[in-house]
Amino acid sequence: MVLFNVVFPVFAVILIGFLFGRFTDLDIKPSSKLALYIFTPALYFNSMLTAEVNNDEIVKILGYAALLFALFVAIVYLISTFVLKYPPQLRSALFLSTAFPNSGNYGLPIILFAFQQAGFERAIIFSVFQSFLMNSAGVYFASNSNNNFFASLKDVIKMPGFIALLVAMIMRFFSVDLPEAVLRPVQLMGQAAIPTLLVVLGIQLGRVKAAINWKFIGTAVFLRLFAYPLIGLSIIPLFFQMTSLTAKVMMIVSAVPSAATTTLLAIQFDAKPELVSTVTLVTTVISLVTVSLALSVILGL
């Protein structure tokens, strides 16, 4: 039931994008820019402005996401350095393949279908923080740690989604209400974000140039789809009641596959982009099963 009502609709849209990307050569950049600069910021702004999530819970979500990321990065570093003995380039590829869940253009629609608007609002907070990490720590990892972390923070602050979220949070704090004539266009643009993000994800996956390294791929799949959510599950009691809506949402957004946009960082810094994109494709396909199982268990709590 979960598979057909929640996961299948998301994969159906991704599949449409995948086939479109595989059999056409239409430039994806305009659609990606629309999503990045218009639709997604509108979605973040409207959701944060109207969200029925108190400030204390927002802080807890951010704390959970930060601790999960820090613990996971430490584990991946130990495994890649001392167990697998990877050189810097492969170590960077493993970080990019596993440390950043696709909580935006994959996780958000899953959460929306499974937990409705209340869950969606909580997932957006997690997703924005992941975007922040990807554009700061992600750049740092991709560049083999060549002191680019703080420089990349400047680019994060300029991100439209980050600005939209910050403005909405300030307006919430000061109880500023927008007139309907202003809020409704923002709502309409935000509604376009989910289908656009899913189609863009499918197109990106359809154009993946695969590389075979079974040891690397197997390790990355295990870390992304099993280790990361298990670490998340272990620390959830530090922040939330296990049966709460927020806890359930955090479990699912922690279990999603690898973020597709990490491939762009891998290409930019030559961090084995074929391997990174292959892991994204493989984890997305396998997540049809793993996310469905996770949803079945969590919805039963």
Keywords:
301 residues; mainly alpha
Protein described:
- The two termini are 16 Å apart.
- 48% of the residues are buried.
- Helices cover 78% and strands 0% of the residues.
- The protein is an all-alpha fold.
From the spread of the alpha carbons, the general shape counts as: globular
What is the arithmetic mean of pLDDT? 88
- Count of DSSP E strands? 0
The secondary structure category is mainly alpha
Helix content: over 70%
Give the N-to-C terminal Cα separation: 16 Å
What Rg is obtained from the alpha carbons, in whole angstroms?
18 Å
Low-confidence segments:
none
Counting DSSP H or I runs of 4 or more residues, the number of helices is: 14
Strand count, sense and barrel status of the largest sheet are: none
Strand content: under 5%
Task: Write the H/E string, N to C.
Answer: HHHHHHHHHHHHHH
Question: Could you give a short description of this structure?
Answer:
By secondary structure, the chain is an all-alpha fold. It is built from 14 helices and no strands.
Give the secondary structure arrangement, pairings included.
Elements: H1 2-23, H2 29-50, H3 55-83, H4 88-98, H5 103-134, H6 137-142, H7 149-157, H8 160-173, H9 180-191, H10 193-206, H11 214-235, H12 245-253, H13 262-268, H14 273-299
